[in-house]
């Protein structure tokens, strides 16, 4: 049991794609507010294909909490599919912000 706790609290990186009607519903700003409240660092942005992408770093339990809160938020009903990829922590980010696709 102790090993599981250590893993959950360890620093991780998460890449998420949200699919559905996730643009034009305040998704990015909702995700930003949730991430900042939890203390997660990274970014969120709309993609040209209609998806929303998040790259985030922080404690594994904080990232899990962010995913859960996004799903339960006002934008949750617009999510049809979530693709998650857990990656090694890189310590790349200083804050969490909305990025724009160029």
Describe the structure.
With 102 residues, the chain is an alpha+beta fold. The protein has one domain (23-98): Alpha-Beta Plaits. It is 32% helix and 36% strand.
List the helices and strands and how they pair.
Layout: H1 2-9, E1 11-20, H2 27-38, E2 41-46, E3 52-59, H3 60-72, E4 79-88, E5 96-98
Helix pairs in contact: 2-3
Measured as a percent range, the helix fraction is 25-40%
- On the 0 to 100 scale, the average pLDDT is 92
Number of helices: 3
Structural class: alpha+beta
CATH architecture: 2-Layer Sandwich
Order of helix and strand elements from N to C terminus: HEHEEHEE
Low-confidence stretches: 1-8
Number of strands: 5
Q: What name does CATH use for the topology?
A: Alpha-Beta Plaits
Q: What characteristic shape results from the CA principal axes? A: globular
Largest sheet: 5 strands, mixed
